[in-house]
């Protein structure tokens, strides 16, 4: 156990501890698990494999820190957010390179994430001054009626491996702005990028011990943390950025425990191309929407619906443009298509492509892979019975479909159960979030409502007359 994170001093991969109460700590018995680079297959790091006792410790640290943090003046919170932004700015290239190695994110996307983190931290510094209540009208003479938002307590945030930098900070910042403390459980596929780097930055910035805590676990052992989260009364809210399957399990357990949930889930994100569009611009938009981070972001476009009169021209240009996308090593600045996160991810994507083809789909490009790098893949004539017509497929795979009219295009777009985006840009201050199978809750300053209780306070200056 130590108060500063220890790296191995030799050239072998580093060992990362977990972070609780302002300290870097070993898991019981020194247990670790191996974190492997998706492109090279090399060992990236060894990471603390925590159990139930470590989960209790991180939650207890967050609970103990909550009263003081909730009472911290907004100026001090803002100072800490600005300090964290300065550290990320200084470490921008280093963190981007770690992200590329651990998650397969291209250097382009990894660097873009660091810029988003900096912007989000600096915007969050302003959110601390937003009003947290209002004066209410009252029909009772001599009454002063107000509503006030108060922080909940400990927030358990589950952070994903895709978009690991920005999404880990997004999962932490709204709760922190509202006056809560957080325990972050990063994905076992990216524990460093999705949590431990955040802890390093927070520690250096000077966040008080226990305000931010990060607990890591070995593959297949997430239930250890989840069990403690649902049974520990100090945890008031579960904040998940992840998949629909995981969300259903967590929401069911949260319902039994009467704990609040905020869920940012997957999306299908159709793009509609109508006959009055600039077709070259539409192709460029579709290329970015479908293939950034090799299709592994909840905002990626999964289906492009093109009005019939433009369909053949669009499809031809879209295929030609997709053929030019460089694929391979995510650390090469020229690379646009890096590796998928795991062999299991490659297997699932390929299975869905093969399933669609077996059901009558036409493959125009791709459908192959080398190592964990899946080629940009374009399909048409995909039947609605195919899994990829209805479910989010996390890979560089997109369906192109024609529509005879505006109304038919909208009807096609609405056939899925997701509701996250449809060719709408995501901005930090915007109320980003989903409906239906894409979850509930919002990002940005409006998300403070998700992590607070609304309290009504009524004060009377004169006695009230009662009927008996």
> What overall geometry do the principal axes of the alpha carbons give?
globular
Q: Work out the radius of gyration.
A: 24 Å
User: Which class of secondary structure composition applies to the elements?
Assistant: alpha/beta
N→C terminal distance: 66 Å
State the low-pLDDT regions, or none: 1-10
Percent range for β-strand residues: 15-25%
Main beta sheet, described?
6 strands, mixed
Strand order of the largest sheet: 10-9-8-11-12-20
Helix share, percent = 25-40%
Describe the oligomeric state of these chains in a short phrase: single chain
Treating each run of at least 4 consecutive H or I residues as one helix, how many helices? 12
Mean pLDDT: 89
Number of strands: 21
Description of the molecule:
The chain is of the alpha/beta class and 468 residues long. It contains twelve helices and 21 strands. It has helices at residues 52-70, 74-90, 92-103, 107-127, 164-178, 192-205, 222-231, 244-257, 279-291, 308-322, 343-358, 406-413, and strands spanning 15-16, 18-20, 23-25, 32-36, 43-48, 133-136, 143-151, 154-159, 181-186, 212-214, 235-241, 260-264, 271-273, 303-307, 362-365, 369-370, 373-374, 377-380, 397-403, 439-440, 452-460. The strands form six sheets. The chain has a six-stranded mixed beta sheet with strand order 10-9-8-11-12-20, sandwiched between helices. A five-stranded mixed beta sheet has the order 13-14-19-18-15, with helices on both faces. It is globular.
């Amino acid at each position: 156990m130590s108060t500063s994170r220890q790296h191995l001093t030799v050239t072998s991969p580093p060992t990362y501890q977990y972070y609780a109460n302002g300290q870097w700590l070993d898991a019981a018995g020194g247990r670790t698990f191996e974190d492997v680079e998706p492109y090279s297959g090399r060992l990236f790091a060894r990471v603390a494999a925590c159990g139930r006792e470590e989960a209790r410790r991180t939650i207890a640290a967050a609970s103990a820190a909550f009263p003081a943090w909730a009472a911290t003046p907004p100026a001090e919170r803002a100072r800490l957010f600005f300090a964290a932004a300065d550290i990320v700015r200084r470490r921008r290239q280093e963190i981007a390179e770690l992200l590329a190695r651990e998650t397969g994110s291209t250097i382009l996307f990894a660097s873009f994430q660091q810029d988003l983190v900096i912007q989000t931290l600096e915007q969050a510094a302003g959110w601390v001054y937003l009003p947290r209540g209002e004066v209410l009208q009252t029909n009772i003479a001599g009454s002063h009626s107000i509503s006030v938002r108060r922080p909940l307590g400990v927030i358990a945030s589950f952070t994903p491996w895709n978009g690991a930098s920005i999404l880990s900070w997004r999962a932490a910042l709204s709760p922190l702005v509202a006056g809560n403390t957080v325990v972050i459980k990063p994905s076992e596929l990216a524990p460093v990028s999705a949590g431990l780097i955040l802890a390093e930055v927070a520690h250096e910035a000077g966040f008080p011990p226990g305000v931010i805590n990060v607990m890591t676990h070995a593959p297949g052992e997430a239930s250890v943390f989840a069990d403690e989260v649902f049974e520990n009364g100090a945890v008031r809210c579960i904040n998940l950025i992840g998949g629909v399957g995981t969300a259903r399990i967590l929401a069911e357990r949260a319902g039994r425990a009467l704990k609040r949930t905020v869920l940012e889930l997957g999306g299908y994100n159709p793009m509609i191309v109508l006959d009055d569009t600039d077709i070259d611009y539409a192709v460029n938009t579709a290329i970015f929407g479908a293939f950034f981070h090799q299709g592994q972001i909840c905002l990626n476009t999964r289906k492009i619906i093109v009005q019939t009169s433009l369909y053949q021209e669009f499809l031809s240009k879209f295929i030609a443009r997709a053929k030019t996308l460089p694929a391979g090593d995510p650390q090469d600045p020229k690379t646009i298509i890096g590796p998928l996160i795991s062999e299991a991810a490659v297997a699932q994507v390929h299975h869905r492509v093969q399933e669609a083809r077996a059901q009558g789909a036409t493959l125009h490009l791709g459908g192959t892979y080398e190592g964990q790098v899946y080629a940009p893949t374009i399909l048409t004539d995909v039947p609605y019975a195919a899994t990829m017509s209805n479910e989010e497929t996390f890979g560089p795979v997109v369906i192109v479909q024609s529509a005879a009219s505006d109304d038919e295009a909208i009807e096609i777009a609405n056939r899925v159960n997701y509701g996250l985006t449809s060719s709408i840009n995501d901005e930090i201050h915007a109320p980003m979030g989903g409906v239906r199978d894409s979850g509930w809750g919002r990002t940005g300053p409006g998300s403070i409502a998700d992590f607070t209780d609304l309290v009504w306070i009524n004060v009377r200056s004169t006695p009230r007359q009662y009927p008996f």
